Amino acid sequence: MSTTPSAEPAPAHATDTDPAASAAPEAPETQDGSSGQGAGAEVSKPIRGKPASGRVWKEPQTQRHSLRYKSRVERKPWSTKVEERKQTQIVKTVAAELKREKDAAKAAAKARRAEAIKKKLENEKRAEVTQVVSAAKVKRMGKKARKAVRKA
Asked: Low complexity bias: where (predicted)?
């Protein structure tokens, strides 16, 4: 800066001759009165701007998810796999046998029902009381009487 007085005052940040301005600023005091630069001092995070999404509470991603969490699948030995396959095959065969038995029982019940219905119809036919009505008598009957004859 020039030593000649000017009408404009020099900005506060441009004072190169001031030794206090070139020194690092002191750390602010914490609640317990210490300056915070002791053994337990934390490294402060760099100041970030507001994210475009507006979610200021979210931390920026420092590592990829695939690197952060390693998921390891426990491999089963071959003998265990073979044994499990045998067990599932046994379970399947037992289930199939039970299904066959159930289906056979259903089919038998259906056949019994059909036989019972057939037998019932035959018994009703056998038990019917019929009358022989001549054609001349039917011609003389009224309409309602003819309908009754047809139903019976």
From this structure: 7-30
Residue 116 lies in a domain: yes
Joined tokens for residue 69: 């969490």
Cα of 49 vs its chain's centroid, Å: 37
Query: Domain range for residue 113?
Result: 80-124
- pLDDT by residue for the chain (152 residues), tens only, comes to 455 555 555 555 555 555 555 555 555 555 555 555 555 567 777 777 888 888 888 888 888 877 877 777 788 999 999 999 999 999 999 999 999 999 999 999 999 999 999 999 999 988 887 778 888 888 888 888 888 886 65
- What total of structural domains would you count in the chain? 1
Rounded Cα distance, 61 and 67, in Å: 12
CA torsion through residues 122, 126, 130, 135, sign: positive
